[in-house]
Structures are given as C-alpha cells and as structure tokens.
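Researcher: Sequence recovery benchmark, item below. Answer with residues only.
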C-alpha cells in the first residue's frame, strides 16, 4: 500500500477531519468491510469505525491497483 505525500496532503487539506487518522486510513484499506468499483477504474475500500472523535463513521479510501501495490488517491 502506498500513501504518497501528495495524496496525504490532499486528504489533510480537503478532509481535515482525517488529519489524525492516517492509521485508520491504512487499516480501512488493509481490512475493508466492503470494496466497491468506481467509475474510472478506481476502487473504494469502505470500513465502519465505531469510535472516532465524530462518533461512528464510515471511512472510504479511494485507491488504484498499481502493479503489486494499492496507491491511495484520497479518503473521506
């Protein structure tokens, strides 16, 4: 799994509520509840976290399969 500095910066700027949740982002991608296929060949890993600072929330991690790795695009 790859979380580039560019993707991490995008997530922090566009979704500041996730700034402290890098570990949850990686966990959602490693152990999703469900994986959905996007419209432009991206994949979406979805996981429910029952304890966040906002209460129970679903986390969606958008990624692309690149060779043998998953490259994170964004998360919300």
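Model:
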């Amino acid at each position: 799994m790859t979380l580039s500095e560019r993707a991490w910066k995008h997530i922090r700027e566009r979704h500041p509520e996730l700034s402290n949740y890098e570990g949850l982002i990686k966990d959602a991608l490693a152990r999703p509840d469900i994986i959905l296929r996007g419209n432009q060949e991206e994949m979406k890993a979805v996981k429910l976290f029952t304890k966040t600072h906002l209460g129970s929330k679903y986390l969606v991690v958008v990624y692309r399969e690149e060779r043998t790795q998953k490259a994170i695009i964004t998360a919300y």
